[in-house]
Amino acid sequence: MKPEIITLDGPAASGKSTAALVVAERLELPFVSSGLLYRAATHLVLSHDLDPEDAAGVLACLADHQVELIPASRGNAVFIDDEEVTDRLHNDAVDATVSKVSRHPQLRSWVAARLREIPGPFVVEGRDMGKVVFPEAAFKFYLTAPAEERALRRVGERAAALDQVAEAIRRRDTLDARQLESAPDARHIDTGGLSIDEVVAIILEEVGQVGKR
Length: 213
Ligand code: DC
Known about the structure:
Helices cover about 45% and strands about 15% of the residues. It has helices spanning about 15-25, 35-45, 55-65, 90-100, 105-115, 130-135, 145-155, 160-175, 195-205; strands at about 5-10, 30-35, 65-70, 75-80, 85, 120-125, 140-145, 185-190. α7 crosses α8. It binds 2'-deoxycytidine-5'-monophosphate. 2'-deoxycytidine-5'-monophosphate (DC) binds near residues 12, 35, 99, 102 and 172.
């Protein structure tokens, strides 16, 4: 396969991470989760007790640390100064602050630069991968699903009541809205009512790799 990049964008819990992981595995490509870099920056903000609104402070802190995203087909690992922090990046504290941190244009540029350093090909998921970071990507997908269905999916991942999860997802949709624009040439897939296998099949068909395992 040529060094092609496949982008999967969409809102929180739209199924893009799971779909991207399976697609990467089927195509034997590395999977890249761009959200992990925003989460790593947020972890630094929280652990240094920084003001997430203070873009200069956040950038200065990032400059003091070595943040590394290690892509692989079965998931990603994140290291900060050689210490693995992957299992500290998905929790309510990070979820509640990450949108504030990821809003800063300087931080978005920092993440984009880290991602563009990764040698292709790979499958990358996020919000603006197809439109902003990899406009030249060979295949672009934009996954959506109704907020209620996304909340139902996430409630299994976090120990919280459905209405709280739905509210948190709606809040994050609003905060992330600016980043959530689809690339004009992305193929939209409404994952509501579809199984992961069905979503993956649509993507693999478009990529022209249906039979490859
Ligand atoms: O995909 P995720 O839930 O791990 O992303 C965490 C947060 O990072 C999300 O609330 C929005 C932000 N994000 C972003 O702004 N742009 C991206 N490409 C990926 C994530």
